[in-house]
């Protein structure tokens, strides 16, 4: 079942398998809650997860990079974090077994990782996103990074520093996809979309969530 609703308390897209399952918070990139994000939720529901994607832009979505940057610039970080925390709380109270993970893309990947620093998530997958070393030290759940080979948003050494911190206390997973750029998994950006890499990354994402949320 899939719905666009004010559930839980905010505009969002919810996709649920018939028999329930673990929860997954899906956090959109700076373009907004595009149809492709809803499709990701639906794919997660087909794989047996309850997927919830809050609309951090309240119905707005960007058509180009300039508009996306303006929308991201207008987003209040504290309000976004609060909304994601509420979504995680709803999922944890609702889903079978109470286990909740997250998948975030770009801006959403950073927000998902920040949410994980609160201890509220059991696993997190971040596409082309990292945290600063100080914040990274607060991450305690399993992490999977899906990285582009060329990323204008992050200096080349940033993922290496982030992973080095994570390896101090665990065994994070990270994959870099040759020939890709930032946003390679977003079909709404045809110039950067890399279908083969996106499919491979998604297969790894679902397997990672299955492994860590069904324990």
Features of this protein?
215 residues; alpha/beta; 8-stranded mixed sheet; single chain; Rossmann fold
Topology, please?
Layout: E1 2-5, E2 12-15, E3 23-27, H1 35-46, E4 50-54, H2 65-74, H3 77-94, E5 100-105, H4 107-116, E6 123-127, H5 133-136, E7 143-150, H6 158-166, E8 173-181, H7 195-213
Helix pairs in contact: 3-4
**Shape label:** globular
Q: How would you classify the helix and strand content by structural class? A: alpha/beta
Mean pLDDT: 92
Largest sheet, if any? 8 strands, mixed
Structural account:
This protein is of the alpha/beta class and 215 residues long. The protein has a single domain, classed as Alpha/Beta hydrolase fold, catalytic domain (Rossmann fold, 3-Layer(aba) Sandwich), CATH 3.40.50.1820. 38% of the residues lie in helices and 21% in strands. The chain has seven helices and eight strands, in the order βββαβααβαβαβαβα. It has an eight-stranded mixed β-sheet, with helices on both faces. Strand 3 (23-27), helix 1 (35-46) and strand 4 form a beta-alpha-beta unit. The radius of gyration is 16 Å and the shape is globular. The mean pLDDT is 92.
TL;DR of this structure?
This protein is of the alpha/beta class and 215 residues long. It has seven helices and eight strands, in the order βββαβααβαβαβαβα. α6 (158-166) links the parallel β7 (143-150) and β8 (173-181).
């Amino acid at each position: 079942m899939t719905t666009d609703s004010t559930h839980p308390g905010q505009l969002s897209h919810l996709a649920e398998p018939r028999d329930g399952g673990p929860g997954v918070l899906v956090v959109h990139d700076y373009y907004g809650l595009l149809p492709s994000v809803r499709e990701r939720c639906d794919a997660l529901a087909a794989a047996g997860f309850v997927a919830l994607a809050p609309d951090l832009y309240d119905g707005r979505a960007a058509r180009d990079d300039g508009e996306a940057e303006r929308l991201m610039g207008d987003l209040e970080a504290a309000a976004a974090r609060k909304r994601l925390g509420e979504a995680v709380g709803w999922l944890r109270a609702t889903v079978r077994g109470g286990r909740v993970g997250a998948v975030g893309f770009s801006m959403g990947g950073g927000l998902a990782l920040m949410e994980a620093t609160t201890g509220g998530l059991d696993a997190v997958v971040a596409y082309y996103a990292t945290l600063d070393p100080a914040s990274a030290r607060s991450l305690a759940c399993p992490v999977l990074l899906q990285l582009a080979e060329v990323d204008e948003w992050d200096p080349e050494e940033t993922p290496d520093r982030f992973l080095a911190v994570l390896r101090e206390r665990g065994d994070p997973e990270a994959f870099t996809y040759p020939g890709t750029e930032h946003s390679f998994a977003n079909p709404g950006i045809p110039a950067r979309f890399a279908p083969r890499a996106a499919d491979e990354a998604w297969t790894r994402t679902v397997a990672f969530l299955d492994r860590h949320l069904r324990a």
